[in-house]
Amino acid sequence: MASFRGHLSFSAPLGVAYGALALMRHEFDWGACTVGAGVTMIGGMMPDLDSDSGIPVREMFCALAAASAFLVYPPLRENGFTLEQTLVFMTGVYFFIRYVVANYFRRWTVHRGMFHSIPAIFITGLLVYLAYPSRDVYLKLYLAGGMMLGFLSHLILDEIYTVNLMGLRIRFNKFAGSALKFTSPSYRATLATYTILLLLTYVAWEGVPSWLRKPSHRPQPAELTPPVQPANIPADGP
Questions:
Q1: Could you give phi then psi for residue 164, rounded to 5 degrees?
Q2: Residue 211 parent element (H or E)
Q3: 28-77: pLDDT as tens digits
Q4: What is the rounded CA–CA span in Å between residue 99 and residue 91?
Q5: How crowded is residue 157: how many other Cβ atoms within 10 Å of its Cβ?
Q6: DSSP single-letter state for residue 192
Q7: pTM for the complete prediction?
């Protein structure tokens, strides 16, 4: 399978292309496109969180903890917390993700388990969609798409590395088919993964604006809205 450096070398240019495409189409400004590129690059390394190796996992959880601490800042400030209280919460979130969540994640997951699967792609995308503090639905979808694209690139690269093209016959190693999968031998892990996916889908769907659920209700720009016809008023008074 591909190394951590190999995944980084692949996801970094993929992220640049993802951000540049949105920038050339004038979908978002340069800041949002840069964030989209970074999210795509991080998504390309996310599946390595279930790895048993030390340095990549520590680096990934450090980045994840820092991003989580940053994301809680806007809602805390909007809800009336002082700057000092917000900093305390941010510090708590960082250490909780960095040590508590990381420790339990390593205990509960196995390498090439359900975290290397198709449902995990949608789970990470939904987490980005729900966690990003913005009211712009399209921006949230754009960032979620970047995470899913990077995650998918990791799985595809892992599958490519399981194929041996040397010689006259194509050979697969023992990891073939372990990345692009929908289930695992553990029914508990499979059940837990799909339960999380359904719950996140429900939460995301409940937060979607009604006009996005029913495109016919989508608000139109002013220039497309037909002018209001004035009421018929008699020219002469009584």
A1: -105, 110
A2: helix 210-213
A3: 899 999 999 999 998 988 887 776 665 667 777 888 888 888 888 888 88
A4: 12
A5: 20
A6: H
A7: 0.73
Query: Which alpha helices (DSSP H) does 2-136 contain, by range?
Result: 4-24, 30-43, 55-71, 73-78, 83-95, 102-108, 118-131
Which residue ranges make up each domain of the chain?
4-51+111-209
Distance of alpha carbon 122 from alpha carbon 197, whole angstroms: 7
pLDDT, tens only, 172-213: 555 555 567 888 888 888 898 999 999 999 998 887 766 666
The token duo for 144 is 């979620």
Q: If you search the block for the tokens 């919460």, which residue do you land on?
A: 89
* CA atoms within 13 A of residue 147's CA, in its CB half-sphere: 22
H helix or E strand, kind and range, residue 159? helix 137-160
- Tokens matching residue 71: 């994301």
Q: Which of 59, 208, 82 is nearest to 140 (CA)?
A: 208
